[in-house]
Design brief:
- The chain has 489 residues and is mainly alpha-helical.
- It contains 21 helices and four strands.
- It has two domains: 352 residues, no CATH class; 102 residues.
- Strand 3 and strand 4 form a beta hairpin.
- Helix 5 packs antiparallel against helix 14, helix 8 runs antiparallel to helix 10 and helix 14 packs antiparallel against helix 15.
Amino acid sequence: MKKIENIFLGVIGSLFALLRFPSIFEPYWYGDEGIYQVIGVALREGRVLYSEIWDNKPPILYLIYAIFSGEQFYVRLFSLIVGLATIVVFYFLASKLLKSLSARFMSTTVFAVLFGLPIIEGNIANAENFMLLPIVAAFYLVITSSSKNRFIFTFIAGLLMSFAFLIKIVAIFDMAALFVTLFILRFLEDIHLTKHNIHSQIKNIINGLEQETVLVIGFIAPIIITILYFLFVEALPDFMRASFAQNVGYVGYGNFFLFPMGFLYLKLALLLFLLLLIIRYRKNLGEPGVLILAWLTFSVFNASFSQRPYAHYILVALPSFALFAGYILDNKKLLKKLVPLLIIIAILVLQVFRLNFEKIVPYYENFLSFISNNKSVEAYQAFFDKNTPRDYVLADFIKSKTSDTESVYLWSDSAQIYSLSGKLPPGRYIVSYHVTFYPDATRETREAIEKKKVKYIIQTKQGSQILQFLDNYELKYKIEGVNIYERKS
């Protein structure tokens, strides 16, 4: 690598670390992270994932939290380190796909800055933060493979895609993008199907799927091992329900249009249409263009898959979007055709996800004010969520009023209170929306509360559903609008 490239990577890596630095000092405030923290601790204490502690994602994200005992500081720091590694691998990939140094630098800068800023929630140690490294590395391995190492590199790429899938199942779309890219580049470059040769050409295509087959084998192998593990610990039905079955209902609800999944079918039709356009103009686009546009098409579909406006969903589209920006700079002949596409994608993303750019500067001002003693702890915490100071007060109450062996139950969506107070939920369901979502969860939670003889039931979320847990409890305290029920003697 040239000296100027080393300098660039050093500068862009430092900028990314600087943008992410405040994130490792954030308070415990984000609900999903609170769930991961609880599961991480529960796994360390011997609970079996899904059957004894519950959430609806594949297992690897929870294992990451378990490695760091659910400590947010260390998980966020690890996320920062993984982000730095992702930027380096991304630059290597850009170097293979983009011809000019200016295009590589611009593409990597777009990727690093957007990944570092809190605007698309890169500051939160969510699944998407950890998925990007194996996904980008998988694309890089396939692109750099030669005839000698093609199959071993492709197999490793499949393993990496599977690793990303076991962090969050939407990585299946990145896997599909890589598979389709290989197919287009290997079998459609010089094939012209006519009524005279269609059967022989289709036969050649099917017989030539060696690399794609190796990719799929690498992808499936870790999934099979994971299934066998949960079968061994007698938690396979729970694993399948949490990781796969529940997400069908989740996606269906968000994509209702005339009928369940109606809007998803429209998006799928658009995806197929765009892939046909890529195939049609593959020679004009060249190999880099085919890969980047196929990946971008699947990534945008991925980000909008559940039809919910969560900013961190955009992270999955960030690598291909940044590469697309560099590809436009690299191919000025296609400028008039590609720039409008870039603008359309940007407008759609802004319209659907409604990103709050105005919060970027206050985010860093909040951190600087806090570390310079110009802002109180409570004001610093409240910047992230108005309920965060309350959660810390409740955690202090729990620690002062319970022994290490006494349990509490939170009727709340703020799972981080468990982490802050050093407690675990009495049953496997952590937050109230877990309980209300599953038909058997109420009965199961009642039994767990009685079995553990929970000392306090703490209600931060309003609703009559909590009454079904209060037979042996009476209202004892009220702290900042939160009802705290104590078990009757």
